[in-house]
TrEMBL record:
Name the UniProt record assigns to this protein: Uncharacterized protein
Lineage: Eukaryota, Viridiplantae, Streptophyta, Embryophyta, Tracheophyta
């Protein structure tokens, strides 16, 4: 997979995407799926860099830095989704006990 160089604009788009998809409107399964997509993208970037290093390819410093920045941003997004899932699960449990 060829990864396009990362820009701050892409980072902002990722954050906006998460904020636009309000967790209140999503099921826990949908939120977990979103988190898994972010995790998959992190792994793809890491694997791509690792494969290039393994093959001895010269990696452009800017490209590598952009990938590292993108990985950090995606990790933040991953943690956001995890936090949203935990909130939703807690709210579900609270609602379940309140109804009992």
């Amino acid at each position: 997979m060829k990864i396009k160089p990362f820009t701050q604009d892409i980072s902002n788009q990722q954050s906006i995407k998460i904020k636009e998809r309000k967790s209140e409107d999503m099921s826990i399964e949908e939120m977990i799926h979103e988190q898994q997509l972010v995790d998959r993208e992190i792994k793809e970037i890491i694997n791509d860099l690792g494969y290039k290093r393994f093959r001895g390819e010269e990696i452009d410093e800017e490209y590598e830095r952009d990938c590292e920045i993108r990985i950090q941003k995606l990790k933040q997004d991953f943690n956001i989704w995890g936090s949203e899932v935990r909130k939703k699960e807690k709210a579900y449990e609270d609602e379940k006990y309140a109804a009992a």
